[in-house]
Design a protein that fits this description.
Number of helices: 12
Order of helices and strands: EEHHEEHHHHHHHEEHHEEH
Number of strands: 8
Bound molecules: zinc ion
Helix content: 55-70%
Radius of gyration: 24 Å
Largest sheet: 4 strands, mixed
Number of domains: 2
Structural class: alpha+beta
Distance between the termini: 30 Å
Strand order of the largest sheet: 1-2-3-4
Length: 372
């Protein structure tokens, strides 16, 4: 989810990103509240007041979604998982958690706490709406109470990847002892719900509610697609059982110095080696990875005067794997950090590079040979 997202701040050690699609929704929502919802609720409202209420509501809805996602992330963290980032996008948010929940009960807790947070916010806003005297403030809190209850309720629909689907996965996992079985059931339910939304959306369009209908159908399309990708990933990872990083990595120990020029990197490492990334080593210490992506923005004539250390990624800490790391875990680390390559270290020494392309080739090979 990192592509097309802007990092806006960091909270409790978790990076918060906003997907560009969210900015569009922010505008649409503010507009529809300012010209439709609030003026019909409060007839005496001036345009300036309506737009202010609309914008405040959108910002507070954004904060509500953030609290919902933080609840997932913080509970996951107390259960020993890592919570790296939260991305707020078109339909709400996604918490990027690494490390699979070790037990069904943990999975259940992490999933349920998000909707519970939304319901709690909804209840608090409902009480505030009843308590405040100003009708505009009451309308604002009333709106927030409504959307938070809807947000919690929508997320409880029992189809993966929604929270309710995760709850379903945890329940089936608990009953059958198989996490994959749980996921299959939850993804199946999610696809059913997704198709249901698509049919509902089309019916709405036919009945003349084009905007709502398209909106519902898009959500359905997203739901039926998202779970399938997750299931593919789990099945791919299963094919990697028993395979470790050493089996797939390239035992290439060539590395570049931090002070070398980008020109050197291109002419002596990337092109002759047919590589997309090179580890950066100072003395015998790995200090980063420099990738094609890092240097693409540099004009060819500026390559001579640009040092590798100034463009390489991982300056605040490099993610590495060991030769005995299970390949499935390495893949997960790559997906979580959006890395294309990881350096492989043994006793602190660079012994090779593992690329996502190599892992994918291994999965395809195993599929073709019907291994596992
Ligand atoms: Zn959630």
């Amino acid at each position: 989810m990192r592509a097309g997202s802007l990092r806006i701040f960091r909270i409790a050690g978790i990076d918060v990103y906003v997907h560009v699609s969210w900015l569009v929704i922010f505008g649409l929502l503010t507009w529809s509240l300012a010209v439709g919802y609030y003026p019909s609720l409060l007839p005496g409202l001036t345009a300036a007041q309506a737009w202010t209420l609309g914008a405040i509501s959108s910002i507070l809805l954004f904060a509500s979604v953030l609290v919902h996602e933080l609840a997932h992330s913080l509970v996951a963290r107390t259960r020993g998982m890592q919570a790296a980032s939260i991305t707020l996008f078109l339909f709400g948010g996604i918490s990027t958690l690494t490390g699979d929940a070790p037990r069904a009960s943990t999975e259940f807790l992490i999933a349920i706490v998000g909707p519970l947070a939304s319901f709690a916010i909804g209840a608090a806003c409902f009480l505030l709406a009843a308590a405040v005297g100003d009708p505009r403030a009451a309308a604002l809190f009333g709106y927030l109470a409504l959307v938070n209850v809807l947000l919690g309720g929508f997320n409880l629909i029992p189809g993966f990847p929604l929270d309710g689907g995760r709850v379903l996965r945890a329940v089936v996992w608990q009953l059958t002892g198989s996490m994959r079985r749980g996921l299959e059931v939850a993804v199946g339910a999610g696809q059913l719900v997704g198709y249901g939304f698509m049919v509902w959306g089309v019916l709405q369009v036919l009945q003349g509610s084009a905007f709502n209908g398209i909106w519902i159908a898009v959500i359905g399309w997203f739901l039926q697609g998202a779970g399938a990708a997750q299931l593919r990933q789990v099945r791919s990872e299963e094919r990697l059982t028993g395979v470790s990083v050493r089996d797939v990595m390239r035992p290439d120990t060539s590395a570049i110095e931090p002070n070398a020029s980008v020109e050197d990197l291109v002419e002596r490492y990337l092109v002759p080696g047919n590589r997309r990334a090179v580890p950066v080593v100072a003395g015998d210490r790995l200090v980063g990875m420099v990738t094609l992506g890092d240097i693409q923005a540099i004009a060819p004539q500026a390559r001579v005067s640009t040092r590798v250390v100034d463009v390489m990624g991982g300056r605040s800490g490099v993610t590495t794997v060991g030769p005995e790391t299970p390949l499935a875990s390495a893949l997960e680390a790559m997906l979580a950090g959006d890395f294309e390559q990881l350096p492989v270290l043994e006793d602190g020494r660079l012994i090779g590079v593992l690329s996502r392309a190599d892992i994918i080739r291994q999965i395809q090979l195993r599929e073709a040979l019907h291994l596992k």
